[in-house]
Structures
1.
Amino acid sequence: MPEFDRERLRWMYTQMLRIREFEERVKGTFEEHPGTIRGHTHLADGAEASIVGSLAALREDDQLLATYRCHGYPLVLGTDPKAIMAEIYGRRDGLCGGYGGSMHLTDVGRGFLGTSGIVGQGIPHATGAAYAAQIRGKGQVVLSFFGDGASKQGAFHESLNIASLWKLPIVFVMENNNYNVVTRVEQEDANAAAGEPLAVKAKAFSMPGETVDGGDPVAVHETVGAAVDRARSGEGPTLVESLVYRLSAHGNLIAPPGVPLHYPEHEAVAVFGNTEEYEAARRGDPVPRFRGRLVEDGTLSAEEADEIAERVRAEMQEAVDFALASPFPAAEEAVEYVYA
Amino acid sequence: MRELPYIAAIGEAIHQEMERDESVLYFGQNIATTDDDPYLKAFGSERVRVTPISETAEIGMAIGAAMAGYRPVVELYMAEFMLVAMDQVVNEANRFHYMTKGQVKVPVVLKAGYGFTAGWAGQHTGTIYGMFMGVPGLKVALPATPADAKGLMTAAIRDDNPVVFFHHYLLTLEHGDVPEGEHVVPLGQANVVREGGDVTIVALGYMLGQALEAAEQLAGEGVSAEVIDPRTLAPLDTATILASVEKTGRLVVVDQSTRHGSAAAVIAAEAASEGFSSLKAPVQLICALDATVPYSEPMEQYLLPDAAKIVAAVLESPVAA
């Protein structure tokens, strides 16, 4: 890892751990504080390396848009976890004042322009933001994050076509976690069924398509970084397929009416009875994997790694405490912000 | 003041706003495909672009560009093409300002022609604005005259919200007085086009012309009709309509849509709910008959509201003593 200095690697590890710990606290809330989180939440555990490696490639004035599985990105961008947790708890001090919730985190000031809860539909928004960046002419790049399922939507194909045609400064980061809710990728994707990587879809739009190990933040950084450089230099978009494995189920159990329930087992186990697949993913968990690598090569001592973990745990405990203490918005505020 | 065709009035508004504000973009299908395109010549290929026939991407990209600080006008040609990308119109563009507690604004104008009842048969003749008027966060403009076409387009481009701008295809070459220079018609302000005391006729879009013709005929029968053009469906200027109903006691709403999908039904409900004590007769809805628009001319015309149907409805209406 010659091009990464020690501090950068430690920063990456810390950010991965922050996402993991945050998501663990969200998950834990269902049992520790039942009823606190409403509706549906989607966790990024397993995708930490992919998120951190991707965002590490950005410049401060770059922008990104993502999906309903959106807790990880703002954490890395510097959004206060207290505001994120308060949003997920529906509180007044939330990042979006309780108007958006878990699926719609947005922090415009940090370049995080928006998140669509409808699969694939945020891809054209990111493409439009890239068009804006192209017109503005200041060398900004946009990252568009979405899952493998989204690549079956027309919005994906229409957007990649225009992005390539117009040479827009955008990188499409497909986090391929192998499952669209409970549908396995080879059940719905012609490339996967044929044993090909999903990155081959790029070929149809005459743009580069790369597949990368999304469990390795350094590899992701190299691949996304090269694509960002390419976009910034005016050569157009790239499709990056980042192979991740979400370590939790698609979302928490939904049991209407009433209180949403805890997270069930991952679909590999709960639906397909494929315990071995899930256990293998657990063994390859990117967070301990990266820690092991950093400790082994001397970037981080075991004691330092423990200290980081301790700090992160305290930070996320504060986020939970803050969010629990934050008041609800006044009910009558529900009719504000309908129009700008 | 000089005369301009309706479609040129819309074009003038877009052109003037692009001149006034560099953040205004204009893109969509089948525009700017040659170097002598007037918008392309005036504003360049960064701000004016032809897009592939990809409505989801066109509208979605307009939303993204708007989030990033621009004010796109999307040329959609026909209103029905929005149906291909309905999520972007009613579940994306309109939601972000609200869901982010105002962090994001989406000033997008979707320019959509509708109601091409001139032999375009079932799929290009729809009058579908009713679908959009109850969508929170979305505004709906419905110009019936060249002057309003210019003024409402100007207001739509300047508005910080997504606006669906419906222009009627049969009005395309209709001429009318259009103010030169800056001309803004505020969204949410109805126009009392003809004053009268016996009956209020609210006419939507293209139906304004039919209603005015009917009012003229009714005058010959001794009935004084007040004709109101709401001009925008969202926001809807309910106050102007209710004030008129208070004066006349009778309300007829004319809409080229089919009844249950019509804006007329909503206006009738507002009058029944908020103006009941003023009403001396049941509210009458004059809408398209409930069928897909057919190709053949006599059948097509049979389905649609026109001046004769309005006159007949008013004259046959029971009036409380």
2.
Amino acid sequence: MNKDRIRRILGRIPIHVVVIGMCVIWLVPTMGLLVTSLRPFQAVNSSGWWTVLSKPTGAAEYEQYCAACHGPDGALLTNADLTDPNVVNKYPRSLQLLAMLRKEINGQPHMGDTPVPEAQAAADIAVYLKRISGIEAPPRFTIDNYIDAFVGYRATGTYREACATGQQSLDLNCNLRDLLNPRGMGRAFINSLIVTIPATILPILIAAFAGYAFSWLDFKGRQVLFAVLVGLQVVPLQMTLIPISRIYAQLGLNGQFLGVWLFHTGFGLPYAIYLMRNFLGSLPRELFEAAYLDGANHWTAFRRLVLPLAMPAIAALAIFQFLWVWNDLLVALVFLGGSNPVLTYQISNMVTSLGSGWQLLTAAAFISMALPVVVFFTFQRYFVRGLLAGSVKG
Amino acid sequence: MAQRVPQIMKQGRVVPWFYLAPAILLMSFFIVYPMINTIGLSLKNKDGTASAATTCKEGQSCWGVFENYHYALTAELDTTSAKTTWDSFWTSSYGNNIKWVVLMVSGTLVFGMLMAVLADRLKYQSLAKAVIFMPMAISFVGAGVIWKFVYAYGTTQVQVGLLNAIITKLGGEPVGWLQTIPINTIALIVVGIWIWTGFSMTILAAALRNVPDELLEAARIDGASEWRVFRQITIPLIMPTIIVVMTTMVINVLKLFDLVYVMTGGNYGTDVIANRMYTEMYANFNQGRGTAIAVVLIVLIIPFIYANIKRFLEQEAMR
């Protein structure tokens, strides 16, 4: 290696540090979400997600206070076997445990010369004793949170436990029907799909027609109309919500999928037409001339020429509109609400009503993110292309 | 102007309108008509049955038919003295939106540019860029949950939120990130930057790729430092793109609703215009005030609509 090369590599270290540092900052919050959604609920609220790979709660305290006499695995003293559930069951909490530790055994202090542990340490030890005696040994990872989120189970414990002991709430049946429980993410996922698929296809189809007219048909006011359309792209949703809610109330469309499909279509159109027109307008003119010389009319040209050639633009638009509708909260909140809850609505509801049920909230959030992230990484190329071709949307 | 349509393709005057009709009908019904209607409703009372002037209270200042605008613009202000007015402005939705615009636009631009420039020369650049871009794919609601967890305020025994865990580990007191003014608005803006940096990074990276290498090489040969080349050649060349990113960002920020709704509900002095409009309409059921706030919002956006159209017409002229 020559000096120049070493110097060049060293000189680039700061760049690596900045880039990797930024990536870590960008990734860590999402990792916290993923890890938390896979931890049992007991662990989620008693320790940070970053401790997931460290020793279980109370292990260190046990090591410090108890291991010397009871042995590292708790089974050393046969008359006080800490792996025996019957023994440990007498000391379920720090209160009972501390009382026992303060007692004398065979005329000697229980703890010998070691001071009795603090309340928090005793509580952790109690948790640890339950673990080694097998009374309550939650695994490191679990998919229970996902099951609970899917079926909409929101009480303490888990859905599987509740169903096994017959303590489930009245809205649950403990069979596959629970996947459609209106409070669950399973139902919300289906609702999101029902909203998103037509609300993606409709505007693209209509935009393809209009985009063709704007690029290859001649009519009065073409430029003016298109300039208006460019302006409409950035009109905020908020500007139209109230009048549309009033009309929907009269038509009985509030809470109906049809209302949301139409609204998303209307609002998706300006951007979709803009993108379509820019793409179709860049196709070579000779192509169309040749088609017409062969006797094609506009309709055949549209079907045989435009639709197949516009596939890249259609793909970009589809990704865009899909992500936009899937991730939308405001329209779902106003026009669907609780009657047909979608994922975003359900989660925002859980945030306000659950407060700190992080295990459910994180699992629910991950369920809602999974599909858009997969779609995004599969079609990243088209997404970026759409982003670069158009300007703003919303 | 736009490309000429070949002569041979001109087929009557009616045909184009068949292709345009569905789009024009839908856009008129869902965008144009409601805009006009919203302006009308903003001059009415809470259920649109009488003029807004009827909602005035005796003995208090009144803007007549514009009473809803009186409310929209001044209700959040505490006008006892100049100082309270100033202070209350900075926790009002307008003050907060200014903070959002300034910090969010500069934040996404700086981080986006940093990533676009630095990652460009690395072997793992596509991976790094995908990481930064990923938040663009998820919903604001999902991002809200992710970051609410980062900001979580735990109990005296344990901090499950990452930030407070770090702070207490270092011996500090836990912070109520989403409850403490003025940190909470900043905390929300950080989430916004986290989401949108990928957007500006992608657009800026594409613009940087179009900067001709010869120009940069020539400057380097003349002995200019990298920083100087960047500042005096690259930046001016990609300025149009920077402006596009900025205007897009400003519009996004003004319309921003979900994040605030999910993370704080607009409480603790974190309200923004878009969320306030929602609250007036769907929590207080006051159409007049809700629509007035919506009109204020579009008035703020109109300059950008104008800029968009102007830019479009310039592009067309160059084709």
